[in-house]
Amino acid sequence: MSARGVKRARALFAAVAGGVLPLLAALLMTAPPAAAAQLTEVTNFGSNPSNLRMHLYVPDNVPAEPAVVVAVHWCTGSGPAFHANTEFASLADRYGFVLVYPSATRGGQCFDVSSPQALRRGGGSDPVGIMSMVDHVLRTQNGDPERVFVTGASSGAMMTNVLLGTYPDVFRAGSAFMGVPFGCFATTDGSGWNSACANGQISRTPQAWGDLVRAAHPGHGGPRPRMQVWHGTEDSTLRYPNFGEQIKQWTNVLGVGQTPAFTDHPQSNWTRTRYGGTGTQAPVEANSLQGVGHSLPAGGMAERAIAFFGLTESVPPPGGGDPAACRVTATTNAWNTGLTTSLTVTNTGTAPVSGWSLRFTLPAGQAITSGWNAAYAPASGTVTATAAAHNATIAPGASVAIGFQATHTGGTAPPTAFALNGSACATG
Asked: What percent of the chain is modeled with pLDDT above 90?
């Protein structure tokens, strides 16, 4: 890197470090309580072309197949610092998921989100090392490959965007605090800094942003991960226009409209919009914080990220257990390479079910092309149907009728493994 580039990078690191310190108050809330589980460093975890370090946190209460959350630090930070100074560890203790903390080791401790190698699947650099960490945890901790997520702040938020683009078949969702779109930071001169992107001067059409993501893994034809983004309107390090560009990118990638399906204000200066659905696990969620810079105020945002992943919902006990107070009946009509499936979801309990989402697994080869009375994402594999505005509450003893049309490659069976708001349902 040139002397000018080094000077600019040092200025960046100082700015990012200064801006991220207040972020800790937002994600921290309180320091993680003392627990028997300990953060441990893992070495020799697999291919690691950029010599990242890996730390792992496994709570004492993990289920048989725990979810895996990759938590990515800011410039000048580290995995242990992210662990010690944010709420994610205490949330892992509460909800029983495993945490993976990568640490960048290059000068300034920023992650590579700009090189050509980082922006294509299997190209090398940091994403390959992080994927080796995920593979290691899935293998050694019996992690659930259907519940792998990523979150990060600043440089880690940019890496969150990159990982969702390069490994869409691995991650089910991401939450990016103060980041930029996938490919926005791209450079070809060996520099790790893109001033035009940082200053919010790069604007593309939704299609163009989406094409960058699709080009990262051109052979991928399956579902895409959901995305949650957070940004302060007064961010002077990674400026606020990047918030809107991320919305354009991920709504295009996920094939949902850019007009919000839901808008509210969780706090007086927050505006939360959801796209393609109204529930907690909508395909895209965007949180704009009025008057906030490259830091975020307190408000339990770490838990909101975990809720977006679906990890705050109750989880059926290992090996099954009693089903929740719900029942799902499925009826499928098939022809040639297409089918329709109608689902009747009944609340068999004594309390209303509000803001519901129904998770289920499609048979191999089925892919949803359209649906009614709910929003469906992703299109295949483990799908979540999110309530529409007109049927968001199911009264005790009442039912809602939803359904979808799909293509198939021969497997025409109905979905399986129904869970309403995270709890298993009876069928039939």
From this structure: 66
Helix (H, G, I), strand (E, B) or coil at 112: coil
- Chain center to CA of 301: 13
With cut-offs at 50, 70 and 90, classify the pLDDT of residue 305.
Answer: very high
Report whether 304 contacts 264 (CB < 8 A).
no
What pLDDT score was predicted for residue 6?
43
The two three-digit tokens of residue 275, written as one number: 């796209």
| Structural domains of the chain sorted by starting position, each given as residue range(s) with its CATH number in brackets | 3-309 (3.40.50.1820), 326-427 (2.60.40.290)
Question: Per the residue annotation, which of 50, 154, 288, 380 is the catalytic one?
Answer: 154
- Active-site residue, 154 included: yes
Nearest to 59 by CA among 97, 21, 87: 97
Residues in the chain: 428
- Cis peptide bond N-terminal to 378, omega within 30: yes
- Predicted confidence (pLDDT) per residue in 121-140, tens digit: 999 999 999 999 999 999 99
